[in-house]
Design brief:
The complex is a heterotrimer of chains A (about 550), B (about 100) and C (about 170). With about 550 residues, chain A is an alpha+beta fold. Chain A has four domains: about 100 residues, Sulfite Reductase Hemoprotein, domain 2; about 160 residues, Sulfite Reductase Hemoprotein, domain 1 (2-Layer Sandwich), CATH 3.30.413; about 90 residues, Alpha-Beta Complex (Sulfite Reductase Hemoprotein, domain 2), CATH 3.90.480; about 140 residues, Sulfite Reductase Hemoprotein, domain 1, CATH 3.30.413. Helices cover about 35% and strands about 20% of the residues of chain A. With about 100 residues, chain B is of the alpha+beta class. An eight-stranded mixed sheet of chain C has the order 2-1-8-7-6-5-4-3. The radius of gyration of chain C is 18 Å and the shape is globular. Classes of the chains: A alpha+beta (about 550), B alpha+beta (about 100), C alpha/beta (about 170). Chains in contact: A-B, A-C. Chain B: Pfam families: DUF2849. Chain B: InterPro entries: DUF2849 (IPR021270). Chain B: This is DUF2849 domain-containing protein.
Chain lengths: ~550, ~100, ~170
């Protein structure tokens, strides 16, 4: 956990009082909506279909239990009793009143939570691997660097009015759980040949109307130089990024139009001028941030405790354990993913009661720490293996033990037309129907790892381009129509999916997905060949044939 | 921001209302004939041609403190004279999400 | 439009010239970049002070040869959402060591003041009277800053280092 000090607390409180003043001026008419819009966006407040939506940052996906309880409190007191965890390690509340927002922010500030830059054309929440600090084989805990970058980019005087939003994600593992290749800047922690810590820097990834996979701009930037290197990228982008067309304003378009070579030369020229400045981090500064991340006092525990051995006889427990429990870097401990994808439920939603109960469970079983991942699930990062059976029972009672992590019903979906003013079509009901179709665990397990991603418009908040099966809702002649892609992925081998054919109607989407899955089961060479590997081997044609043969 | 009045030529295909979200709490509201806002679609002023629509929208835009993001939305008038939303988006804005909200435990 | 300079509302001694306004005999003038670069020799020989209005899409490096000779640079915010002039301001102050008046013009509103001060602006053509009057109060809104700029305010990282050393807790 990162512990705020007085300096961090002061800044958050100053931000709350500034926003309180801004809301007051808006409600009195001193600020027009045109003037206020950017101010509320800089503090995570959107206008959606039914009400204002309030997005709260969960930097690098790490939450303490008192913070989780504060989120539950906000859901209960200021909203309708639930929240929605997003693909960027944020949580959204859907019914917040503008007049009450300053109070909600003040309540969150007490536990070191804020909503700064969760929207608007600035640096968004810095995201990371939800298993940071506990996954085996990491170079080092990426959250130390995430926090350094978070601080550096918070209320940045030069980069708070960029051409468009800007997202950074960091991973320190070979397996990328942070989807860094679809971010404006992706950072991969590595060591150079001298054993020094630094980053491979990728730039220009992003989805939306014009999707791009990020390209490597520099193979190694030393850790001490990372702030100046990011500053150089941002300065080039701030000056040259397009501002004439919102759809061409992201850095991916600038990188594409200039070409990565020219873009990287511009960045390099700028960087050489600023790298030996006060932006350079010395070891003591890094150590200071590092020292404020505390780690549990792990016990020395056996690899295979009796409790776990006994519970293995229960097939329901085993089904859950097999896809929810991952290896921890410390023997005797596990990382437990908590599925927020119950059958028939909206992906990523949690009630205030669930949040409170999870906080209690985290206190009891996970040293008071909870994580949020970009797949819209939660995790308990430090669970002793002997506690797994008891934890499972408790989660099951809360409706939080659906054994579907990484399976076909572990769907990523944007809020879609049920909430979002940008959406053209609904996403959540599609997800709900799919979770019902594939509710049979044996079937889901037989299918194996398969990610479905659903977006309700071209802005791609549901990351449909990188879903193994991607579903994009559009509107055609007043009707919802869905375009299906296959073969996308968001990990270290990130790729964009390929459209399989004409769009299909709302009622047909689940049937089409069933057809695709049946085709895969018939076509795969062996049970271990995952969906995405079959698509890679055979291309989209056989799937296309299957889907459209009878339509 | 371009004013909604300038965005494009206002043309309506059938009976329409002006809708927005109330500034202080964000709820869906409709412009009434009495130059104010109502949460009830049944109290909305109905416009039937482009000039009326433009005038009603202009009046709504002028009330920037009262409500935000006003725009013209289609409605259907039932045989009994009842006013209904004219498309799915407006239907959802009026009656809420089409999904169950997460079950309370 | 009130001008704030040195934290106070002041009279503006500068007169803005358009591209084709006849050059006045004396007095301080602010001249569009294009005209300034074309007539620099003539303009700089006049008795009054000369400043340049520099658009936010033109390389600020072009102005470098003149920085020692001009009294003011006015950077432009065509809308408050367009942040290019923040980069130009920092380059002028931090890279090119410009010490004259650095003025924010265009859509300059209260909620940008802190960013602008941190980027190096010291004069502000404020759009609204109430915002201009609230300048000092707004400028003091923040006491914590996470990033170093040319304004010399100490960053959180450096302050923590000072605290560590003064408290002797440097472990």
């Amino acid at each position: 956990m990162y512990a705020y000090d007085e300096i961090d607390r002061t800044l958050v409180n100053e931000r709350v009082s500034e926003f309180r003043d801004q809301v007051k001026r808006r409600l009195s008419g001193e600020l027009t909506e045109d003037e206020f819009k950017i101010l509320r966006l800089q503090n995570g407040v959107y206008l959606q279909l039914h009400a204002y939506m309030f997005r709260v940052a969960i930097p690098y996906g790490t939450l303490a239990t008192n913070q989780m309880r504060a989120l539950a409190h906000v859901a209960r007191k200021y909203d309708r009793g639930y929240g929605h965890f997003t693909t960027r390690q944020n949580i959204q509340f859907n019914w917040i009143k503008l007049a009450e927002l300053p109070d909600a922010l003040a309540d969150l500030a007490k536990v070191g939570i804020h909503a700064m830059q969760t929207s608007g054309n600035n640096m968004r929440n810095v995201t990371s691997d939800q298993w940071a600090g506990v996954a085996p084989g990491e170079i080092e805990d990426p959250r130390i660097w995430s926090e350094l970058i978070r601080q550096h980019t918070t209320l940045h005087p030069e980069f708070s009015f960029l051409p468009r939003k800007f997202k950074i994600a960091i991973t320190a593992s070979d397996h990328d759980r942070a989807a860094i290749r679809i971010h404006d800047i992706g950072l991969r922690l590595i060591k150079n040949e001298r054993g020094e810590t630094g980053f491979e820097v990728l730039v220009g990834g992003g989805l939306g109307r014009t999707p791009f996979i990020a390209k490597t701009i520099k193979h190694f930037v030393h850790g001490r130089d990372i702030l100046s290197y990011i500053e150089a990228i941002l300065r080039v982008y701030n000056q040259y990024g397009r501002r004439d067309n919102i759809y061409k304003a992201r850095i991916k378009i600038l990188v594409h139009e200039l070409g990565i070579e020219k873009f990287s030369r511009e960045v390099e020229d700028e960087w050489q001028q600023i790298r030996n400045s006060s932006l350079q981090l010395d070891d003591e500064m890094i150590e200071d941030i590092r020292s404020r991340f505390t780690y549990p006092a792990y016990e020395k525990l056996p690899h295979m405790p009796d409790e776990l051995r006994q519970a293995a006889a229960d097939p329901d427990f085993e089904a859950w354990r097999k896809n929810s429990v991952a290896p921890h870097k410390v023997q005797g401990y596990s990382i437990v993913t908590i599925s927020l994808k119950p059958t028939g439920g909206p992906p990523g939603d949690a009630t205030a009661e669930q949040m409170d109960a999870l906080a209690d469970l985290a206190d009891k079983y996970s040293f008071g720490e909870i994580r949020v991942g970009h797949e819209q699930n939660l995790a308990l990062p430090h669970v002793a293996k002997r506690d797994l059976p008891a934890l499972w029972k408790a989660l099951d009672k809360l409706g939080l033990a659906t054994p579907n992590v990484n399976l076909i019903t572990d769907i990523i979906a944007c809020p879609g037309l049920d909430y979002c003013s940008l959406a053209n079509a609904r996403s959540i009901p599609i997800a709900q129907e799919l979770t019902r179709r594939f509710a049979n665990h044996e079937l889901a397990n037989l299918i194996g790892r398969l990610h479905i991603n659903i977006s309700g418009c071209i802005n791609a908040c549901g990351h449909h381009h990188v879903g193994h099966i991607g579903i994009l809702g559009v509107e055609k002649n007043g009707e919802e129509v869905y375009q299906i892609t296959i073969g996308g992925r968001a990990d270290e081998n990130a790729a964009l999916g390929t459209l399989i054919g004409p769009g299909v109607k709302f009622d047909e989407v689940a049937d089409v997905v069933e057809d695709i899955v049946e085709a895969y089961l018939a076509l795969r060479e062996r049970p271990e060949e995952l969906f995405m590997d079959t698509v890679k081997r055979l291309g989209v044609e056989p799937f296309k044939e299957r889907v459209y043969a009878t339509r | 921001m371009t004013s909604p009045l300038e965005q494009k030529k206002i043309r309506i295909a059938g009976p329409s209302v002006v809708t927005a979200n109330r500034t202080w709490d964000g709820i869906v509201v409709y412009r009434t004939a009495g130059k104010s806002w109502s949460a009830e679609l049944s109290e909305a002023a109905i416009v039937r041609n482009s000039d009326e629509a433009k005038a009603l929208l202009a009046e709504a835009v002028a009330d920037d403190v009262g409500a935000i993001g006003p725009y013209i939305a289609p409605v259907q008038i039932g045989d009994d004279g009842k006013v209904l939303p004219g498309n799915l988006r407006e239907q959802i804005r009026r009656t809420g999400v089409t999904i169950g909200q997460p079950a309370q435990i | 439009m009130p001008l704030v300079n040195g934290g106070k509302i002041v009279d503006d001694s500068f007169v803005k010239l358009a591209v084709d306004t006849p050059l006045p005999e004396g007095g301080d003038i602010l001249v569009p970049a294009e005209r300034f670069l074309g007539e620099a020799d003539v303009l700089l020989k006049r008795s009054g002070k000369v400043g340049v209005i520099w658009p936010n899409n033109r390389d600020i490096a072009e102005l470098v040869p003149y920085l020692g000779k001009i009294a003011a640079v006015a950077l432009v915010f065509p809308t408050f959402r367009d942040g290019r002039a923040y980069s130009q301001a920092r380059l002028l102050r931090e890279r090119y060591d410009y010490r004259g008046e650095l003025r924010a013009t265009g859509q300059v509103l209260r909620d940008q003041f802190v960013f602008m001060l941190r980027a190096g602006f010291d004069a502000f053509e404020v759009k609204k009277q109430a915002d201009a009057e609230a300048f000092m109060q707004t400028a003091k809104r923040y006491s914590v800053f996470y990033q170093p700029t040319g304004d010399g305010r100490i960053t959180a990282l450096h302050r923590r280092m000072q605290l560590r050393h003064s408290e002797g807790v440097g472990t």
